[in-house]
What we know:
Helix content is 78%, strand content 0%. The protein is an all-alpha fold.
Amino acid sequence: AMLIAFYFVFPILPFYFVLLIFLTSVVGIILGNYIGIYIDIFHPKLVWEQEAAAVKQNMAGFISMLGGMAIAVGMGVVLFFIPQEFILYASLGILLLMILFAVLLYRGIGKFAQAAFAKY
């Protein structure tokens, strides 16, 4: 909703760019959540005295956030140095790679969780 309002207040980008930004944001959020789940499965915080300690003292969220920031900065640098006429194609390529990676993570999460928790 915020992107649509931005488009009508500041129509500096074509609408398909706004749509591409929205789709990339949604896929990026899903991808970041899957990466966070994998980190939690790989290194779970199973010993705690209070329920809040399982979340507050767990570094998985912080590691996932730093990884997401690094990916965002990397994509920004790549898109900054690409010539103007290739930005749309590069953005679509990045979106498709993110979708592919999210699907691969989704499909492999069950096997990964079974293998990781088999040792407990």
